[in-house]
Amino acid sequence: MLGLDAEEPQIFVTVSDDLVEQGISAGRLVQAAVSALPFAVLAFDRLVTSHFYGHLVEVERVAFVAEARRVASELVVVDTAVSDAAAPDGWQERVLRNGSRYTIYKRHFTPAQLLAELGGDGEVLFAGRFFVAVRSCRRRPEVIAGLGDAPALLADRREA
Question: What is the CA radius of gyration of the chain?
């Protein structure tokens, strides 16, 4: 198991400590940006992301999917389901318990929408009221439906 975070991966240290206490081997912790993952082509059988993908704007989604396809033969995405209680996408202000505020981008998905966006080449694993989960098999990034020119956008981000 590997934990990845763009910032200092403190949360993974806590999770790893909890796993060790349960007799489960702790994984490796890596600090990196998802637009340029520090792993070889097909280094992993599966890449799983939970409630992350829906926070990415389009250019970030393109870069993430391209990198996920490069390093893993299977991609599993779990994210928030569409509901009547929230807009399907947009910028939202969040307020923490301490009163501090921050703005995030958030998208909500139908199972079919999420699967199609990842290439349509997999299956819906879960379609619930609060979240959806889909599994998608490896495809070339430039043919992923609705995500534009992934290689060019990814190259632009790496040069920036």
Answer: 16
Summarised one tens digit per residue, pLDDT across range 76-116 is: 999 999 998 888 999 999 998 999 999 999 999 999 999 99
Measure the CA–CA gap between 150 and 141, rounded to whole angstroms. 6
- Interval 118-128: pLDDT, tens: 988 899 999 99
- Only one residue has tokens 């399907």, namely 88
Residue 24: give the domain boundaries. 1-31
Q: CATH no. for residue 85?
A: 3.40.50.150
At 7, list the tokens: 């910032």
* Distance of alpha carbon 72 from alpha carbon 64, whole angstroms: 12
Please, is 47 exposed, middle or buried when counting C-beta atoms within 10 Å of its C-beta (0-12, 13-18, 19+)?
A: buried
Q: Which residues, in sequence order, are CB contacts of 142 under 8 Å at separation 6+?
A: 149, 150, 151
pTM: 0.74
Same-domain check for residues 153 and 115: yes
Contacts of 118 (CB under 8 A, 6+ apart): 65, 75, 77, 134, 136, 144
Are 83 and 137 contacting, i.e. CB atoms less than 8 angstroms apart? no
